[in-house]
C-alpha cells in the first residue's frame, strides 16, 4: 500500500477485480492516474489515447489508439473490447482540449468548432457506441470529465466552458435514458489540477484560477483517480446524472 497522499493510500484492493474498464485520454495527467488506480483495484484496463499504440488486448488489458472525434474509431474500439472480453463494465472519458483563450469576439470559428468536437461531440460518440453494450448486458458505469468551467463559465474560455457545460447536459439526459438498466452515467467537474493542461494556460490565467480555490492549492491526479474508482464501481449504485464537485471548495451552488 502506498505511503503517499490519502487518495493514494486508501486503495480498495479487489473492488474492480476482473471488471473491464475502457478509458479515454489514458495518457493524460488525469487519465493515466485513473488507469493506475483502477488496475491497482483489479480492473482489466483498456487504455485508449490518440497517440497510443495499437496493441493486442491481453487478460490484463492493453492499449488501443482512439480518435475520440471519429465514430468509426469508436466502433472499432468497442468491437475490439467486446470481442476480446465480451462486455464493457465501465467507461471513463477523461480526454479533453483547452481551446482558445481569448474574449468571445476574438474566438476563431475553427477554434470554436474544434473545441466542441474534441470536448463535447466526442462524448456523444462515446456514449452512442458504449451505452447499447451496457444496456444489453444490464449494467454499466460511466464517468465523463467535465470542468468547473462548465458550471461557472471561465472568463476568456467561452468555447471550453460551453463544451463542458454541454457534457453535463449530455450525461444528465443519457443517464435518464438508461437508469432502469443499472447503467449509471455521471460527470466530474474539477477545478485546477496538476496536469499538462495547466501548461497550456498563461501564468496570469493559472494564478487567477488558483485564487478562486478556497483550499489554496492545486488538485492532484490521485485525488481525481480516487473519485473515478468509486464512481465507476458497483458501489455507485443509486447515483446517476450527477455532477461530482472536485474543486477544493470553489463551487458552492448551481
From TrEMBL:
Coiled-coil ranges from the UniProt annotation: none
Family: Belongs to the short-chain dehydrogenases/reductases (SDR) family.
PANTHER family the UniProt entry points to: OXIDOREDUCTASE, SHORT-CHAIN DEHYDROGENASES/REDUCTASES FAMILY MEMBER
Name of this chain's protein: SDR family NAD(P)-dependent oxidoreductase
UniProt source species: Pseudonocardia nematodicida
